[in-house]
């Protein structure tokens, strides 16, 4: 007699914060709720496709920490004596 093996529940919540696309779509509210505590990975065809994070975490990661000029002035390469002069060669001919 064959034992009946139940089909896996594709909408079951994952324990480690990794969801298939189908389960994430079916349980979006739970994905968002869990994202408040830790990032939630969504896979498509077994490969990482997206990460859901809380709005607070997103704001922290995307907060601008100064201007480009400030970044360049703080560079450890500043004053390193690099020769970054532009070449004055004439433009090359390109067929359009």
Commentary on this structure:
The chain is α+β, with helices and mostly antiparallel strands and 96 residues long. The protein has a domain at 18-73: YefM-like domain (YefM-like fold), CATH 3.40.1620. Helices cover 29% and strands 15% of the residues. The protein is built from four helices and three strands. The protein has helices at residues 21-26, 28-35, 55-62, 68-73, and strands spanning 18-20, 40-44, 47-52. Strands 1-2-3 form a three-stranded mixed beta sheet. The longest helix is centred in the N-terminal third of the chain and has 8 residues, at 28-35. The termini are far apart. The model has no long low-confidence stretch (mean pLDDT 85).
- So, the CATH homologous superfamily of the domain at 18-73? YefM-like domain
Low-confidence regions: none
Structural class: alpha+beta
Second rung of CATH, namely the architecture of the domain at 18-73: 3-Layer(aba) Sandwich
For the largest beta-sheet, the strand count, sense and barrel status come to: 3 strands, mixed
Output the CATH class name of the domain at 18-73.
Answer: Alpha Beta
Estimate the strand proportion.
5-15%
Cα-atom radius of gyration: 25 Å
- In total, the number of strands is 3
Do you know the CATH topology of the domain at 18-73? YefM-like fold
Dominant shape: elongated
Arrangement of strands in the largest sheet: 1-2-3
The quaternary structure here is: single chain
């Amino acid at each position: 007699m064959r034992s009946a093996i139940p089909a896996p529940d594709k909408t079951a919540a994952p324990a480690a914060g990794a969801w298939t696309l189908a389960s994430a779509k079916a349980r979006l509210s739970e994905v968002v709720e869990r994202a408040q505590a830790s990032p939630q990975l969504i896979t498509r065809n077994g490969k990482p496709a997206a990460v859901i994070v809380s709005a607070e975490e997103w704001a922290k990661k995307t907060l601008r920490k100064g201007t480009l000029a400030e970044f360049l002035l703080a560079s450890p390469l500043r004053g390193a004596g690099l020769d970054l002069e532009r070449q004055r060669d004439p433009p090359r001919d390109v067929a359009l």
